[in-house]
Specification:
With 446 residues, this protein is mainly alpha-helical. The chain folds into four domains: 2-109, P-loop containing nucleotide triphosphate hydrolases (Rossmann fold, 3-Layer(aba) Sandwich); 119-240, no CATH class; 243-348; 351-445. Helix content is 63%, strand content 4%. The protein has 19 helices and four strands. The strands form two sheets. A two-stranded parallel sheet has the order 1-2. Helix 13 (272-291) runs parallel beside helix 15 and helix 16 packs across helix 17. The longest helix is centred in the C-terminal third of the chain and has 23 residues, at 323-345.
């Protein structure tokens, strides 16, 4: 069966537009082409399916159009996926893409040689980086990953993630080395010179990198390209310590993140560096959410977290960095998370709402900056009045871009502060902070 997968646009004639079917029709073609038992074996495509469309069984691609740089790398990668019974992929070049290929490979794999020959140099890079990575893991026993029972394999992966975090410099070198190795392997995965043992170790290092990436950044980028066994191990490794569940909750920052049960799950993680990474990521997400309502206090928590993380990274440079020190850093981050929870709920006992508390914090911060005392009850009342003035101006949808409204807001604030005998400080400071807070809050609630 031969099929054409083409793009279309609104300017096509109706009969041509309709010939390409509906969105569901195209989804069905997608499904059938990926099904090895389907009789849909040959597809003629224009732009669709050339990038990001993984069909592991696909073994041949014919190229008869100019493609450059990243699109070219992605296109030829359609036939380099590992599949049972498939030895290698074949690229049939009808128009001469060698020059474009050399340019793309130099750009995206950091090759320096002017006489780059693609696969041979890729093999060398894979071998070199495997040697570098083995040296990085000197002293770590990875045998259980290759020979152990499933649970032992999972524990080995988690242990490897912990091991490579011994110092920030080691962690960064590891991440860069695996990335470079994986880029090169994408170009030579079908070569007989890459042994099964090489591939096993390559997938091990990629799995470690993916877990570490997920701890720090979010969704791991390598998992989609791993073989099924390693991907399942990776998912299981994260799940085995309950980390995956913590990630899923953390994405949405619900009240659960501050519950005792949630903290207990974090504390149950036995790997100190991993626990610190997780707490750091969760705190970052929680603080960013908090900033949307209370910018000034959110920034204060950001600064406090940065000091703890900087201390952690500085201590990691010490060869004798002991577990009790790691536990201390984890405890500081957990305490900061608890204090953030307390701060988020502090308005409830003050008789003001969430946003009024943000204006209260601004007025309090200015008083602290200029070292003057102001009665607490009047400060709370003043924060309510400030919010009323801001709400009055913010009823106009374009208020934040209209200089006339912002000028009126400033005048009203100056009069209000004068009426409440708010001490004679630089009024521009108060106005600037209040305006930024008002714009920040309205940006996220509208």
């Amino acid at each position: 069966m031969i099929n054409m997968v083409m793009t279309r646009n609104k300017d096509d004639e109706e009969y041509l537009y309709n010939m390409l079917g509906t969105k569901d029709d195209r989804k069905e073609l997608d499904r059938q082409f990926k099904n090895i038992k389907s009789n849909f074996k040959i597809a003629i495509v224009v732009d669709m399916w050339l990038t990001g469309f993984d069909v592991p069984a696909l073994d041949t691609i014919y190229i008869d159009k100019p493609i450059q740089l990243h699109s070219l790398i992605q296109t030829i990668s359609r036939v380099n996926r590992v599949y049972e019974g498939k030895d290698k992929g074949l690229i049939v070049d009808y128009i001469g893409i060698k020059k474009n290929m050399d340019i793309a490979l130099k750009k995206y794999t950091n090759f320096e040689s002017d006489d780059f020959e693609g696969v041979d140099q890729s093999i060398k890079i894979v071998k070199d980086q495997l040697a570098v990575l083995r040296q990085m893991f000197y002293g770590f026993n990875s045998n259980k990953y290759f020979t152990g029972l499933p649970k032992e394999q999972l524990n080995c992966l988690n242990g490897a993630v912990e091991f490579i975090q011994r110092s920030e410099e080691l962690e960064l070198r590891f991440m860069a080395a695996v990335k470079r190795m994986k880029q090169a392997f994408n170009l030579c995965s079908a070569s007989d010179e890459i042994t099964d043992d090489d591939k096993e170790h390559l997938h091990f290092y990629c799995a470690v990198r993916s877990i570490l990436f997920k701890l720090t950044k979010g969704e791991a980028p390598d998992t989609a390209q791993m073989n099924v066994r390693v991907r399942e191990l990776l998912e299981g490794a994260i799940q085995s310590d309950g980390i995956e569940e913590l990630f899923e909750t953390g994405k949405h920052i619900s009240v659960d993140i501050f519950s005792e049960q949630y903290i207990d799950k974090i504390n149950a993680i036995q790997l100190p560096n991993t626990k610190i990474k997780l707490l750091q990521r969760l705190l970052s997400q929680a603080i960013e959410e908090f900033k949307k309502v209370n910018k000034i206090m959110g920034l204060e928590f950001s600064d406090r977290m940065k000091k703890v993380v900087d201390e952690y990274n500085n201590r990691r440079k010490d060869e004798a960095y002991a577990n009790d020190v790691l536990d201390d850093v984890a405890e500081q981050l957990a305490k900061l998370l608890e204090e953030l929870k307390t701060e988020k709920d502090s308005f409830k006992n003050m008789g003001i709402d969430y946003e009024e508390k943000a204006f209260y914090d601004i007025l309090k911060a200015v008083a602290k900056k200029y070292e003057f005392e102001y009665p607490e009850d009047k400060l709370i009342e003043l924060s309510r009045k400030v919010k009323q003035i801001v709400d009055d101006k913010a009823r106009y949808t374009d208020w934040s871009t209209r200089e006339d409204i912002k000028a009126n807001l400033q005048v009203d604030l100056i009069i209000l502060l004068y009426e409440y005998v708010y001490p004679p400080v630089t009024l521009d400071d108060v106005y600037k902070e209040v305006l930024e807070q008002a714009e920040n809050f309205k940006k996220y609630v509208e």
